[in-house]
Design brief:
Elements lengths: L9 E2 L17 E5 L3 H12 L3 E6 L10 E5 L5 E5 L10 H8 L8 E3 L4 E4 L2 E4 L7 H11 L5 H6 L2 H5 L6 H8 L4 H7 L4 H13 L10 H13 L8 E3 L3 H15 L3 E4 L3 E5 L1 H4 L4 E5 L3 E4 L1 E4 L3 H10 L6 H9 L6 E8 L10 E4 L7 E4 L5 H10 L2 E7 L8 H15 L8 E9 L23 E3 L12 H18 L9 E2 L11
Parallel strand pairs: 2-3, 2-14, 3-10, 7-16, 14-20
Antiparallel strand pairs: 1-21, 4-5, 6-9, 7-8, 11-12, 12-13, 15-18, 15-19, 16-17, 17-18
Bound molecules: flavin-adenine dinucleotide.
Flavin-adenine dinucleotide (FAD) binds next to helix 1, strand 3, helix 12, strand 15 and helix 16.
Length: 505
């Protein structure tokens, strides 16, 4: 087995996997539908084991929700616009194992020194919290001005203990029907402490608290905080993801004999029984591609459309699971090229709360080389604002106005800045984790031989979230298909699967 990605990483037990071969004993082909992190992780694992892989990606760029494409400013400068800032946490063990294949030292990732939470009434910092999680909880509680001794005495301790008692079957059985908002209310934190310490967690998976499973929130708290011995402060990419991740992964796939077809949409699958044993047909706009294995690694709307149009996927329970998936509220990403710098010392990335829909502010010249060069040349600043879980019908003009007001409140020096250029994205393609959705959530394994699912919406047997969930699901999807050929699985890693005070089972 390869060495652990961190001394805190635990190997995930994959008891159902028996494959021992290094490669399939007969030539085998696979089509991976979707070139986001999940699809690329699956493609790399399959191609490394000698499977002839074709990746079909609808867009003209790879990376999906972490993707980047080339754009040009009015002054002629080309740059890579992204779907938005991403933080690479240190306990993203499987994602990091994927990225190490193209950058063994992970040199494109640079540590942030702090992860501040900014609010109009005061700030919180997650710096200096790299020790054991329980110590972190105590330290954070002790140093925050928002929780006095009297407040602490009012906290609902049994409810708070659920954060330290994460245990997949028990936590989901107890909390999945409730909302994240109701759970947070039950903690009885003072309003300011709740806003500064808990809001960011609740919002950072894009779901509104009133429509998010409390169990999913507890899973996130476990994964990011109470079971995370690698620290809450994360790494950031020092260049656009296209150059740091997706171009190198595409080149790696090329070296492994895989084909990446951008701008190609899969429309439907045709199952083996209709076309001969052990084979699938993937229909695109103008072709019917035959293959032995398929990984369906699109986002939620993509998978629903493809499964809806497919023939032969006749398993009512599974179809019901796919049908039950939905996207959560829209989010906005607004990148601004300002005619003057933000004040010295502004954090590269700051979470925010209490300023309308604004959820975070990134200062791109402190992150990526392209923006650094632009800022150095022009004396300006490249700032990105995010807003998650926007209410239905959110309108671009209104959201922009609110985001700008939030920026001016927290970074007053920007109030007088002129906006030289901007790019605004309003999208709705992140998965919903609604109350009661756990039991219906599809897994990587499907009822159909040769077909597996991957993506950040898939249910996995260990705690995980977002990019790490996508990469882990992709690797597990590949392993599931390889196991059917007697080939060894890809090792997977996790934080502790249960909380430190989980009840004995
Ligand atoms: C603004 C924003 C900020 C984020 N910040 C963070 C962060 O800080 N940390 C973090 O961990 N995560 C973050 N995330 C989440 C992260 O981006 C996702 O969890 C992850 O990228 C999902 O990867 P995926 O492969 O599951 O899905 P996707 O990236 O959505 O990939 C699916 C791919 O399938 C393609 N596709 C769809 N239909 C078809 C079809 N019919 N045929 C062919 N291809 C198709 C799509 O074009 C897409 O490329 C953020 C997301 C957003 C939007």
């Amino acid at each position: 087995m390869s060495p652990p990605p961190s001394r805190h990483a635990r190997p995930v037990a994959l008891p159902a996997f028996n494959g021992r071969l290094e490669r399939p004993s007969v030539p085998t082909s696979a089509i991976v539908i979707g070139g986001g992190l999940a699809g690329l992780a699956a493609a790399v694992v399959l191609a490394e084991r000698g499977v002839r892989v074709t990746v079909l990606e609808r867009e003209t760029f790879l990376g999906g929700r972490a993707g980047a494409w080339t754009d040009r400013l009015k002054d002629g400068t080309t740059f890579d616009m992204e779907r938005g800032f991403h933080g690479f946490f240190r306990q993203y063990y499987n994602l990091r194992q994927l990225l190490r294949r193209v950058d063994p030292e992970l040199g494109f990732l640079k540590p942030t020194t702090d992860y501040p939470i900014l609010t109009p009434t005061g700030n919180e910092s997650f710096a200096g919290l790299t020790h054991a999680p329980l110590f972190n909880v105590a330290k954070l509680t002790w140093r925050t001005e928002t929780l006095g001794i009297r407040d602490l005495m009012k906290v609902n301790v049994p409810a708070a203990m659920a954060m330290l008692r994460f245990d997949r079957p028990q936590t989901y059985a107890e909390f999945d029907q409730g909302t994240a908002g109701a759970y947070l209310d039950s903690l009885n934190f003072p309003a300011l402490a709740r806003q500064r310490l808990l809001h960011v967690f609740a919002h950072s998976c894009f779901n509104p608290q009133a429509d998010m499973s409390a169990a999913e929130l507890l899973q996130m708290m476990h994964f990011y905080f109470t079971a995370n011995y690698d620290g809450l402060v994360f790494d950031v990419a020092d260049r656009p993801f296209s150059r740091g991740i997706f171009q190198p992964l595409a080149e790696l796939l090329g070296r492994l004999g895989a084909t990446v077809r951008k701008g190609t949409s899969a429309r439907a699958l045709l199952r083996q029984s209709d076309v001969g044993d052990g084979q699938w047909v993937v229909e695109t706009d103008g072709e019917a591609l035959t293959t032995d294995l398929v990984v369906l690694a699109t986002e939620v709307p993509g998978i629903k459309t493809i499964v809806g149009a497919s023939r032969g996927l006749d398993d009512a329970d599974w179809r019901q699971r796919i049908h039950s998936l939905r996207v959560t509220n829209a989010f906005a990403v607004w990148r601004l090229w300002l005619d003057r710098p933000v004040a010295a010392g502004r954090a590269a990335f700051a979470g925010t709360a209490g300023v309308g829909p604004l959820d975070n502010i990134s200062v791109y010249e402190s992150l990526e080389d392209e923006s650094r060069a632009w800022a150095a040349r022009t004396g300006g600043s490249v700032v990105e604002l995010h807003a998650y879980a926007l209410p239905a019908g959110a309108d671009e003009t209104a959201v922009k106005k609110q985001l700008l007001a939030g920026l001016h409140t927290l970074y007053p020096e920007t109030a007088a800045a002129g906006i030289i250029e901007d790019r605004f994205l309003l999208r709705q393609d992140c998965p919903a984790f609604a109350p009661g959705s756990y039991l219906l959530r599809p897994e990587v394994r499907t009822p159909f031989r040769g077909l597996s699912l991957a993506g950040d919406f898939v249910q996995l047997p260990f705690p995980t979230a977002l990019m790490e969930r996508a990469a882990s699901a992709g690797m597990l999807a590949a392993s599931t298909l390889l196991d059917g050929l007697g080939v060894r699985p890809e090792p997977l890693w996790s934080v502790a699967v249960r909380g430190p005070f989980a009840r004995s089972s």
